[in-house]
Amino acid sequence: MLDLYFKYPGVLRRLRSGALGGEMDRIAAHLSAIGYTRASAKVYISRIGRFSDFAARNTLTATIDQTEIDRFMSSLPTASSRTAAGTAIEHARRVAPERFPIPCRPVADPNGPLLTAYLEHLRQVRGLEPKTCEGMLVIARRVLAWYGDQVPKQPLAAMTGEHVLAIVEHLLSMSSKDATRSASTSHTRTFLRFLRWADLNDQDLARFVPRTPCWRLAHLPPRLPWEDVRRAIDSIDLTTQRGVRDRALLLLLATTGMRNKELRGLELQDIRWRAAELLVRRTKARRDRVVPLMQETGDALAEYILNARPRIDSQRVFLCTVPPVGPFRTSSPISRIVRSRLKRSGVDVPRGAGAHLMRHSLATELVSQRRPINEVADLLGHRSIDTTAIYVKVAVPQLAGVALPFPGGAP
Fold first, then answer.
1. What's residue 132's pLDDT?
2. Which residue has the higher pLDDT, 105 or 15?
3. Of the candidates 135, 125, 145, 130, the residue with the CA atom closest to the CA atom of residue 197
4. d(CA 302, CA 112)
5. pLDDT category, 400, cuts 50, 70, 90?
6. Does domain 112-208 have CATH number 1.25.40?
């Protein structure tokens, strides 16, 4: 497989003579299979080859331990070269795991078993989603870290209300936004209830956690004028595969109000072409919903799937184009695509905005068109109309029309 990337016999002999020489052809095949271009694969193979030569000069064993990798990394001149070499070595580890022994286990977290039990409680007893559990685990770690530092060698059974107040003061000092402060106190209360439920503390410590006000309708949601959304979509260059994908992606977000996670989880069989519908599975409300597929959006989606989508064995609709090609694993790439396309069209994007900005913009536009609030709630997948009510605040002309006249004023 190396012959596809290098033609000089001397280069091929050098690559196949190092500590990983016997695996270099398999590594080259791996890089080709996961979608790296020829130029990128050559760069990675060269980096692995340099590490292979270094390991051959410095080790006499058949395996390569972490110490040898660390020595090679320290010999590189810059941080960027060390990062690139680390990525290359990770590819070699995936292809030939037998050549890399299992690294030493990190020091066990003393709070690990408790946090594992707490996570199991949140998932199995309370039925919370993984994303929600992540935030609650962060607060639990901070509570345990503070208690371990300030009250060392004391069991959780010795925690008192005075400790709880000090913990809350510490957590609030780490937050600057009302929503974050409210979430911190709420998650602290949940964790303290778990301690009592698990018989780790027999007091009702949750009652000592003060309520932090957070007026959910106090602020307007970030949104864009519909003209800006339209301009961003129309400005996308459709001569590249990435442009075709991004236009379909933005149209889908802008016309269906799908969340980032819902878009990433969309699969080919979820598109009902004849009915012009999309099946959105296991939403935030833990139920499926159906959203309409507009003609323009369907055309853009079909163009992407037929002509621009990478040909790999994956049912996910949207795939990243940067090798290794595959489904989007996190929310960040989707949000970066949205921000990038908006900025390229000259739209002033609010700080921290991402894919959810399109959802807010759609809801605001529908309300401004005087669409019934229950229809907007159904499209967005809200279980309660109260959740959708925040978008009514931006419909100032409609609100002015229903305002009562001032007593004694003009009729």
1. 86
2. 15
3. 125
4. 47
5. low
6. no
CA distance from start to end of the chain: 85
CATH superfamily for 226-399 is Intergrase catalytic core (1.10.443.10)
Q: Look at residue 401 and tell me whether its pLDDT is greater than 70.
A: no
Average pLDDT over residues 138-165: 93
Residue 250: phi and psi, rounded to 5, are -70, -40
Measure CA 100 to chain center.
30
One-letter identity of residue 233: I
- Residue type (1 letter), 199: D
- Rounded to an integer, what distance in angstroms lies between the CA atom of residue 369 and that of residue 382? 19
Enter the DSSP assignment of 123.
I
Are 137 and 115 in contact by the 8 Å Cβ rule? The answer is yes
Task: List active site positions.
Answer: 259, 284, 356, 359, 382, 391
The Cα-based distances of 363 to 213, 258, 349, 378 in angstroms read: 26, 11, 17, 11
Amino acid identity of residue 205, one-letter, is L
CA pair distance 47, 36, nearest whole angstrom = 15
Neighbours of 344 (CB within 10 A): 12
Q: Which of 125-134, 257-266, 381-390 has the lowest mean pLDDT?
A: 381-390
Retrieve residue 98's tokens: 């037998």
What letter does residue 316 receive in the DSSP assignment? Answer: B
Cα distances from 22 to residues 4, 19, 28, 68, 282, in angstroms, run 17, 8, 12, 19, 46
* Beta-bridge mates of residue 323: none
pLDDT band for position 294 (50/70/90)?
A: very high
The answer to whether the CB of 248 falls within 8 A of the CB of 256 is no
Amino acid at 43: V
